[in-house]
Write a structure and sequence with these properties.
The complex is a heterotetramer, with two copies of chain A (334 residues) and two copies of chain B (379 residues). Chain A is an alpha/beta fold and 334 residues long. Chain A is 34% helix and 19% strand. In chain B, strands 1-2-3-7-6 form a five-stranded parallel sheet, sandwiched between helices. A two-stranded antiparallel sheet of chain B has the order 4-5. Classes of the chains: A alpha/beta (334), B alpha/beta (379). Chains B and D meet through helix 1, helix 8, helix 9, helix 11 and helix 12 of B and helix 1, helix 8, helix 9, helix 11 and helix 12 of D. The structure holds thiamine diphosphate (2 copies) and magnesium ion (2 copies). Chains A, C: Its EC number is 1.2.4.4. Chains A, C: This is 3-methyl-2-oxobutanoate dehydrogenase (2-methylpropanoyl-transferring). Chains A, C: GO terms for molecular function: oxidoreductase activity.
Chain lengths: 334, 379, 334, 379
């Protein structure tokens, strides 16, 4: 568990710092992707790395995502630790075969002889006014692929800690970066040294007794806001930030739901076949007799991500979350 | 069966299957990009065509400038300008017959407009009120394709389908130098050549894929050389020479129409502006390079040819400029109006018939909007 | 609704017949894929079509799945109705970008101006002793992609009826063919004319009062067997065959669960992030107060599909289903 | 800024950026496949190498036959035979140094075995007790890759990584003619050429991708011509001439090792058996074609050369045959034993540490197996 002192920064800068520290600590860490070198990435998350570590350590690749991930697999086979950037969520799809058929399976296929310590950074989600193909929530695809870890930070500190852990992991990690939090600063405490966060642990962001909001990534701040707003309605909401979708922290989540007796899963991804189904189902399996109401879901609609001018209608917002909380059969209580 | 039984007379015969499937020699591009303007070839060019190209180039440049200005005013979410590449954009559109199809890449709004699509509808994607703003069937223009190179197999399939139906239709597909690295770039021309589909691939090599220069993209002698590996001719053309681009594309279209199969054209050009309004090009290239290219400007090249040949004078130049200003003013006016938005549209086109799940969700949103509309519900 | 007389046949033959009838009825139907022409497909499902309709109607393509699906998109744009065969589940992954970014979105993107009447046939699932990459259950990926219909037959009659409906649909349909049922004949009644089945309707395959098994595709016969075996334990199980995962037939499923008060979702696909989570969650949301126990899931384990010699340990079998039924809190009843 | 201001002297200068990145001429393959056996070039071949190739070819043929026999006995789930392609399989393995890496495609069990991997471990995938049966690091052989062409970028990445680390390592990657149509085939050599990675691509053009003949796969003059589009040399070789394949690959390996970058080699050969034991080749090709190719058998070709030059006699042939029989008998014996199976292995290697979810599932299976093992629980 490394301890590193950091300066105040946005989530984007914390991510940069995590890569920088990882590269400084371990010469086998290589960053690669489209525009990650000279430009520093379209979100500037790899800014300065090529300058500091040279183009061989932070490499502008040809424009071909399957090739990027596929060559990263070969580099990992030879003992490097590639950190791959997919420029946007939807542009990771060309690499899907490499991801599912090789990245996720290589360790298992070779009985552990050929692990792939690979981090795949994917800026994901909407809310930034992006045109089509720039705002997908693709986490359901990754969750349904055994062999991958799936991690997503919601705070600046976690961005650092979880990315360090992802890079240090001996298994492939799909590291989902909520685009609309890239410039968020709120939860970062510059005075406190930031530690590497173990992967697989959810965290209670806000304690409450009325009901649990289970969420992750871009929806965490929305849920925090909803929890504040809920006070006016007399609800004291707990907010659980999953941080890791795979492995899933049943313990933390179920402990919360057993305490509160009610839960709403909140995410931006489409509802049908999205992460919320899995989460609701497993919470229900484990906490059935503690539940006063079915676990509800607040999610994006089941449609292709909307154009910028309509995205606000799609994204789960405070009202929609409070609506769902209101449907948690409070009558049963009284 | 056993090896020994097979022994016998010494046989230096060639392996049975070997025969080159195509003669490679005619497939190879010329060593130098083909040029018309300022060369003897210019004499053969049709004056009417040159004048038309000129008018469109001037309008195209103005359109690019106007669209970029609209991003600054918040009227467009983003705009990838094709300033400096107008010769390719315009020639691609003008070379096609009405019944043909154009498959643009995300930077090719100009080609879409030059093909006849309403200038505002062409910007819907980039304004953000919807995705594709025009009816692709109306002008036979596929949606502007953001996932790079993915539109190329569509063009092949469409051209193939038209041929199967006996229709005399050619598809022209556009892609950037960066896009040539994608797997879809490979699969599309391969299918096209095997099927001898009437399709023309136009690669605009503008030197960069966002910040990545061509040298980091490929080690090929030229992108046109990739054609050989598919068994189709590769053609190299000066992409800032509108007459040359038009001629090379016209040849390829003619060949495709006549059943001669696909052609791959590399047009060498330059992206004069940043990748988009959101990009900072100074991070990856110097002014000097941009300046050099500005000396090889497509409009200036054509203007010189036209004036040198007495086909254009100050009045003509001024009138082209005026037309462009008129277009720009109209565009500005239209884009300064807020587009009509109906959130219910979100559910209207996911399927021919909305699923029960979507109907539920639609009604949820309708209720939310109704609640929002009530005074006390307003936030 | 077409009515066609058919001869006794395996599921594979019923599928062939469906394509044949569709091709005969509509000259815009084109079959394409790897080895579908001369060979008739590696499972012989397209056997005879090239001979009968010519190679332009049933075409051996180059070996490139993105190219196959991508050119099919272009053909559909021009008014054809391509029926694409992906040779095996895992070999559909190279076409993932085309599927997600174009096939699923084209109608929506163009405000309905450019619908894509495309059928994508994917032989899926295990139980046939296939080596790696030949037995994936990839339905979770398709379910999580709005814009696609996802359909899977479990009987010979449905194979015909649903494939006809898929080909006739004006929207893209991912048509999942359970490989291990290709040679099944049981539920086919040669005397009865086979009709086109509307997409989106689940069917009760077996009525019962104790609990509902919710399942689809390759697991339907397993559930039927389990239901028979359950009689010995005193359970009278209802079996619902979903047939269509998208759209989802909440009505039929929930009506059954409300009747029985208990449910188990059964599928071969990995459990975590698999279809069962969605199904369990939505049933619970809708039937909470009718449930005597949480909806349980019997699924494949969360691992890369096992090698042939170990696959029987992975696949949900009768015992595992009965085990789950046994955990449906029957004490509560008495 | 405005167009008019840019007018001036007529400038027919070439566009600034144009310069071919590579001289295309040396990249082009020869018109005829390179051959050694039965030509003058044979005189220069190393007798020891030829004898070693011969022994491996004979063993390889026998291995193929034995493995196919094992499928009939239910001892293998499936076997894609490389009968007729042994020259490529063997040369690919023999041309590499110990420190080099081999990236085989699914049909290349023979290359894997010739590289030194245990013949039974090489068959694990096809027997079905596990996926990859060998430790890839032990002999530097990547897993046999079933998803076609996907192993090619791995080879490029590995070679690139070795070069970055300053290690003198070459990667040789194998793929079939059908596999060249995949997007990954395109992306891998492009990366290799841009990075000048020390990798050699060997395309075995055996005429078919399952049932699909080359003519439906590509219209390229040859598959070797695809090299030009990546800026690497393409080489065409008679794939049934073991000496020629070895020489061409050795040249390419040497070039890669010396920092000269990647090479693409097309070996023209023929798949004499059906695609796999489960395939019926009579559906798509006639006996006559197969017979023609049998006349150009790699073992017979080499045997003739060796006997003609007095490097091999009946005794040598017989002894090679005997060695092959010994290998086959050992393989048979080992494969006739049931492999040790532990269902718990299913959970052992999904991650370095099993997730809580997998631990739960593992315990579930453990309990089920325990129950099964009890007499009353047995089914
Ligand atoms: C599949 C895919 N990957 C990445 C991107 C992100 N992206 C948008 S434009 C661009 C560069 C394109 O370069 P080029 O093909 O040369 O076209 P140009 O921008 O020069 O017109 C990139 C990487 C994308 N749109 N699609
Ligand atoms: C991505 C992918 N698509 C389809 C398949 C199914 N498949 C297995 S082998 C084969 C033909 C391969 O032909 P070729 O590349 O020429 O190799 P050969 O079999 O001749 O050795 C096909 C289509 C596959 N394994 N991977
Ligand atoms: Mg470019
Ligand atoms: Mg082949």
């Amino acid at each position: 568990m490394t301890t590193v002192a950091v300066k105040p920064a946005t989530m984007a800068q914390a991510l940069t710092r995590a890569m920088r520290d990882a590269m400084a600590a371990d010469p086998s860490v290589h960053v690669m992707g489209e525009d990650v070198g000279t430009l520093g990435g379209v979100f500037r998350v790899t800014d300065g790395l090529a300058k500091e570590f040279g183009e061989d350590r932070c490499t502008d690749t040809p424009l071909a995502e399957a090739g990027i991930l596929g060559t990263a697999v070969g580099m990992a086979m030879y003992g490097l630790r590639p950190v791959v950037e997919m420029q946007f969520d939807a542009f990771a799809y060309p690499a899907f075969e490499q991801l599912v058929s090789h990245v996720a399976k290589m360790r298992n296929r070779t009985r552990g002889k050929m692990p792939l310590p690979l981090t795949i950074r994917v800026p994901y989600g909407g809310g930034i006014g992006g045109v089509e193909h720039h705002s997908d929530s693709s986490e359901a695809y990754y969750m349904a692929t055994p062999g991958l870890h799936v991690v997503t930070p919601a705070t600046v500190a976690d961005a650092y800690g979880l990315l360090r852990a992802a890079i240090a992991s001996d298994d492939p990690v799909v590291f989902l970066e909520p685009k609309r939090l890239y410039w968020s600063k709120d939860s970062w405490n510059p005075e406190e040294p930031t530690t590497v966060e173990p992967i697989g642990r959810a965290v209670v962001r806000r304690s409450g007794r009325s009901a649990t909001l289970i969420t992750y990534g871009p929806s965490v701040p929305v849920c925090m806001e909803a929890a504040e707003a809920a006070r006016a309605e007399g609800w004291d909401l707990e907010v659980v930030d999953l941080r890791s979708l795979v492995p899933f922290d049943d313990e933390t989540v179920c402990a919360s739901v057993r305490r509160t007796g009610r839960a709403v899963v909140v995410h931006e991804s489409g509802g049908f076949g999205g992460p919320g189904g899995e989460i609701a189902a497993r919470v229900t399996e484990r906490c059935f007799h503690h539940l006063e109401a079915p676990v509800l879901r607040v999610a994006g609609f089941d449609l292709p991500y909307p154009p910028p001018m309509l995205e606000r209608h799609h994204l789960p917002g405070v009202d929609r979350i409070l609506d769902a909380v209101g449907r948690l059969q409070w009558e049963a209580e009284s | 069966m056993t090896v020994m039984e097979q022994r016998g007379a010494y046989r230096p015969t060639p392996p049975p299957a070997w025969q080159p499937r195509t003669d490679p020699a005619p497939l190879l591009p010329d060593a130098e990009p083909y040029r018309v303007l300022g060369t003897e070839a210019a004499a053969g060019a049709d004056p009417e065509l040159l004048r038309r190209l000129y008018a469109e180039l001037v309008k195209g440049r103005r359109y690019n400038a106007q669209a970029t200005a609209l991003t600054k005013q918040g009227r467009l979410a983003v705009y990838p300008s094709s300033t400096g590449q107008e010769a390719c954009e315009v020639a691609a559109a003008l070379v096609l017959e009405e019944r043909d199809w154009l498959f643009p890449s995300y930077r090719d709004t100009l080609a879409v407009v030059a093909r006849g699509v309403d200038p505002v509808e062409a910007l819907t994607l980039l304004r953000g009120d919807w995705h594709t703003g025009y009816d692709p069937h109306e002008h036979r223009v596929a949606p502007l394709s953001t996932p790079l190179a993915t539109q190329l197999p569509h063009a092949v399939g469409l051209a193939h389908a038209a041929r199967l139906k006996g229709d005399d239709v050619v598809a022209l597909a556009m892609v950037g130098d960066g896009g040539t690295s994608e797997g879809d770039f490979h699969e599309a021309p391969n299918f096209a050549a095997v099927w001898q589909a009437p399709v023309v691939f136009l690669v605009q090599n503008n030197g960069f894929a966002i910040s990545v220069p061509l040298a980091k993209q490929t080690a090929a002698p030229s992108l046109a050389h990739k054609a050989v590996g598919y068994g189709m001719p590769g053609r190299l053309v000066d992409g800032n020479d509108a007459a040359a681009v038009h001629e090379v594309l016209a040849d390829a279209v003619r060949r495709a129409r006549a059943g001669g199969g696909p052609t791959l054209v590399e047009a060498i050009t330059y992206r004069v502006e940043a990748h988009t309004n959101a990009d900072d090009a100074t991070r990856y290239r110097g002014d000097a390079e941009v300046e050099t290219w500005k000396q090889h400007d497509p409009i200036a090249l054509l203007e010189r040819e036209l004036t040198a040949r007495g086909l254009l004078d100050e009045t003509g130049i001024e009138s082209a400029r005026q037309d462009a200003e008129t277009m720009a003013a109209a565009l500005r006016a239209q884009m300064n109006q807020d587009p009509a938005l109906d959130p219910m549209d979100l559910f209207a086109h996911v399927y021919a018939e909305p699923t029960p799940q979507l109907i539920e969700q639609r009604e949820q949103l309708r209720a939310e909007l109704a609640a929002e509309a009530e005074p006390e519900g307003a936030q």
